[in-house]
Amino acid sequence: MDYVYAFLIGGIVCAIGQVLLDATKLTGPRVLVIFVVSGVILQAFNLYQPLVDFAGSGATVPLPGFGYSLAKGAIEGASNGILGAITGALTSTAAGITAAIVFGYLVAVLFNPKSLR
């Protein structure tokens, strides 16, 4: 059932994003920022952790999960002061940030963009 829960929660997150894109005038980047910030806010009030416990990767892989990881690392690192909060957030998300940079670079090297005209 873990796979079903992950699929359902991940699908609901994606459906919310699609509704925001289709039903509003929000652009893709704005929806992405809304998702990351919502993950941070939900984790700040300890509301995202129960979702992660229930859905696993269905809650941690989408963009609210990135915000959740940032907030969780910052909260854990805050016991070491302001610098700990910053380094805690970066440490907890380093793998995701590194993957985004590496794959973005590979796509830029391997593919030639076409003009939209």
Walk me through the structure.
It is built from 6 helices and no strands. It is mainly alpha-helical and 117 residues long. The protein has one domain. The protein starts with a helix and ends in a 7-residue tail after the last helix. The model has no long low-confidence stretch (mean pLDDT 90).
Largest sheet: none
Distance between the termini: 48 Å
Shape: globular
Please indicate the percent range of residues in DSSP E strands (runs of 2 or more): under 5%
Order of helices and strands: HHHHHH
Q: What number of domains? A: 1
- Determine the mean pLDDT: 90
Helix content: over 70%
Total beta strands: 0
The low-confidence runs, each spanning 5 or more residues with pLDDT under 50, are none
Radius of gyration from CA coordinates: 16 Å
SS field, number of helical segments: 6
Helix vs. strand class: mainly alpha
Describe the secondary structure blueprint for this structure:
Layout: H1 2-23, H2 28-44, H3 48-55, H4 57-60, H5 63-77, H6 82-110
Helix pairs in contact: 2-5, 5-6
Could you write a compact summary of the structure shown?
With 117 residues, the protein is mostly helical. It has six helices and no strands.
Can you tag this structure with a few keywords?
6 helices; single chain; mainly alpha; 117 residues; 81% helix; 0% strand; globular
